[in-house]
């Protein structure tokens, strides 16, 4: 049997709906996650009952044998033989039924585990770029891996381990009540003590688990940052400072973990001691009953075994509380992502069959969520199809924000951004971005081959197309110098390549998409002068007939742009060709003079 989603169920959306519907009720959420797999849980319960029969039957058979021996029954040999055969058969059945139990249990829980991770991955792809900028990636990684694993463990404990505990207790009490009401009442006296112990520790353990989980997320995020900064750290001989900084974080985790361990240990030891005392009392109590002939001598073993079962099962239930508390905290942690509403909504919006490349910024204002200060103020800008417009200005002037509005990462707080006359906030951005290529300031590569990185998201690329792109991006010499050429692995984040090489691969990735709109955010900033010149020539050829937005600090690289917009304090303060702006002798002229 293969792992697959139940027919007719949209797994990711169903999981999100479960969290939204049962928000604040982790147990209902957990139950909802298994929709379509309840039959597997039912079969797991059936096989669990069969496989566990020897544990319940053995005390009865043991008591019967002892009673036959002590009573001197004439057919004792026959009874012993029959009861031994029954036990052997039940024990033999344990092997196949245990396999079937594990099979059905695992199919259900692993499906839910995989489905939850898929739901998280899909939601992360839908969440806005602003959300990702404000959330540490290490925290998200922890939710996908650690928290989902904790939820899977919680599922097993809640639906199967607790079932095991419940069945053991119910059967032990049922057999006991059928034989002696006095002993049954004695057994019941232990239940309130167990309940009081669990209630006392539950709230403390929930708080400790929340603190520990948040500290672990913080540590995961800081470890990722530390790893990414290792080249910078090494270059500035800051190893000891980084170790000292991380040590503080690690000790903070250790302290939270220590407090959690202590409360868990105290919880377990108190419960164990209480029930062991009662087990001794049970032995003495049933012994007195046997002396008074209220029960048979063999029944002492029966009651002691069942009382031991109840003790161990209640103790197991108590020991599950830390796992359950941790799992519930993880359910809530995953919900923080699945219920996040800062998403990019595309459903129901107009889909674009094609993009010409006309853009119009009409009185655009924009500010980020965490501030009321506008980054853009009444920006008006018109870019016609096929034009190359360069955005220049000081850092923080709003250039990158304009690019984010063009890409659709952000929407205008006030005013409109029109694409071919359509308000960009009202179109399906997925259909729009198929005609868009972006080369960011910092090249982003994944740990695959050069070929994979260039053709990312593009299928059926011919070798001829690929070679043309390689040539246009000035990668020919690099590819020819590598033993495996285009099939050379670039390493994590392209770590085996230089900054200029990584940037050229990013440019090649943009070129192969044959876009109608190109966004270049200082795309040549990481290149040496020779490569920059060659790339600039290639980009000039590429951008003919395509609308292109360029942000560049090196003003010499934008001489051939159709128009240059000087951005200051969120406004377009100068607009024109290179020659026109130089003739104005305004802000652009001053900036160019400083760089000359």
UniProtKB/TrEMBL annotation:
Domain ABC transmembrane type-1 as annotated: residue spans: 57-326
Membrane topology term: Multi-pass membrane protein
InterPro entries hit by this protein: AAA+_ATPase (IPR003593), ABC1_TM_dom (IPR011527), ABC1_TM_sf (IPR036640), ABC_transporter-like_ATP-bd (IPR003439), ABC_transporter-like_CS (IPR017871), P-loop_NTPase (IPR027417), Type_1_exporter (IPR039421)
Keyword Endoplasmic reticulum: no
Domain of life: Bacteria
Pfam family, one: ABC_membrane
Entry keyword set: ATP-binding, Membrane, Nucleotide-binding, Transmembrane, Transmembrane helix
Record's subcellular location: Cell membrane
GO molecular function: ATP binding
Domain ABC transporter: start-end pairs: 359-594
Major site of localization recorded for this protein: membrane
Bilayer-crossing regions: 41-65, 77-95, 158-177, 183-204, 266-291
Designated name of the protein: ABC transporter ATP-binding protein
